[in-house]
Specification:
With 258 residues, the protein is of the alpha/beta class. It has ten helices and 16 strands. The two termini are 39 Å apart.
């Protein structure tokens, strides 16, 4: 391959294939393997990112997270995996705590897995989570106001951010679309990213629960660096190679049973 001239369309196809197979590419590796300059590869990666095929990061690119659909679509994706992650996540919850549950299909699974009679106060911006917990024994539910974003499945905007600042949660579960050592925590909505940052700032401890397909991927908007996370809960099917960069970054990772 290194001795053959490669057209831009062919390079793009090869880069996309490697992204799909490995989740990430490095410009230096691509330049060596394709026998072209790193400048050319960086231009290719910029073009692919502009077309929505990847997310540029320092030194290369990451595969985009598949979690870009609306809430109803996401709720139908991998429900068994989300239930496993949720059961692992609720082990972090202690009786009498104040929790914040951010909007999201995995966090909805956490809400369903929380035990009754644990004297929990749950603050949420997600109407479906509030309704799922309302009336269950041992729960006080606080619904954050604001403008409901049907795609995200939660209230966002200035009012929601102001309300969150009035609370002090013992533990928050922040919903994210992507997590990686290179790009940190990310999501697909600017307003959602701003809201999540407010939730993190108002919480004593931060947990993120994700299924395997979000690990090592990126999304459009930065939420926070990995250093903000106290606990990362992941699906049991995440390969060791995908977890290694996160462990190297110093994260405490709880892996659900496969």
């Amino acid at each position: 391959m290194a001795n053959l001239p490669i057209l831009p369309e062919e390079r793009h196809r090869l880069i996309r294939q490697r992204l799909e197979a490995q989740g990430r590419v490095l410009a230096v590796d691509l330049a060596r393997d394709l026998n072209i300059s790193e400048d050319t590869i960086r231009r290719d990666l910029r073009e692919l990112a502009a077309l929505g095929h990847c997310q540029r990061v320092y030194g290369g690119a990451l595969r985009l997270s598949p979690a870009s659909g609306d809430l109803q679509t996401r709720q139908r994706q991998n429900p068994e995996g989300k239930a496993l992650v949720a059961r692992r996540a609720v082990g972090l919850v202690q009786p009498g705590q104040v929790l914040f549950l951010d909007a999201g299909s995995t966090n909805r699974a956490i809400a369903d897995a929380l035990p009754d009679h644990a004297d929990l106060t749950v603050i949420t911006n997600a109407p479906d989570i509030a309704l799922a917990l309302a009336g269950r024994p041992g729960f006080t539910v606080i619904q954050v106001g604001g403008v409901l974003n049907p795609s995200v499945g939660g209230t966002l905007g200035a009012r929601a951010v102001r309300e969150v600042a009035d609370y002090a949660a013992d533990l928050c579960f922040v919903g994210v679309c992507a997590v990686s050592a290179e790009a940190g925590l990310r999501c697909f909505s600017l307003e959602d990213a701003e809201f999540k940052r407010a939730v993190i700032a108002a919480s004593r401890a931060v947990a993120v629960a994700v299924t395997a397909e979000k690990v090592g991927t990126a999304a459009s908007f930065h939420v926070a660096d990995l250093a903000t996370i106290d606990h990362l809960i992941v699906g049991g099917e995440v390969p060791d190679a995908a977890l290694a960069p996160l462990l190297d970054a110093g994260l405490v990772i709880l892996q659900a049973a496969a």
